[in-house]
């Protein structure tokens, strides 16, 4: 999951599968909480959900309590320009947010063992 603070800084948070039932009833999108007693590690994952260099891990002893209304937006998108994606100006190992208008996709065509790449309406290839 991704946790965001009042400065819209985001950090990846993980909960071991054996602890999910302890925390899932107390965590939901948009809920403002104070979290304490958790672990902090370097985020060296090959694929990362956000650019923060650290990630947090919940323990059995991690505490979650609801807090007063703090002005934190529900979503913290960091939109990326499609041109930056095509020109490799974004880190390929960090998930990105894009927004656009879907105008249509032509079907891929198998030619032997190769698949033709999908192209947008301006004939630019995308690796989907």
TrEMBL record:
Residues 1-67 form the Replication protein A 70 kDa DNA-binding subunit B/D first OB fold domain. It comes from the Eukaryota. PANTHER family: OS03G0429900 PROTEIN. This is Replication protein A 70 kDa DNA-binding subunit B/D first OB fold domain-containing protein. It comes from Saponaria officinalis (Common soapwort).
């Amino acid at each position: 999951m991704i946790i965001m603070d009042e400065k819209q800084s985001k950090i990846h948070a993980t909960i071991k599968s054996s602890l999910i039932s302890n925390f899932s009833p107390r965590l939901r999108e948009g809920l403002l909480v104070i979290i304490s007693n958790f672990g902090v590690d370097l985020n060296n994952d090959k694929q990362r959900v956000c650019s923060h260099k650290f990630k947090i891990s919940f323990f059995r002893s991690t505490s979650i309590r609801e807090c007063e209304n703090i002005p934190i937006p529900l979503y913290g998108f960091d939109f990326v320009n499609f041109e930056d994606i095509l020109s490799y100006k974004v880190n390929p190992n960090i998930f990105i947010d894009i927004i656009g208008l879907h105008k249509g996709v032509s079907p891929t065509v198998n030619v032997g063992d190769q698949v033709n790449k999908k192209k947008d309406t301006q004939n630019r290839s995308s690796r989907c």
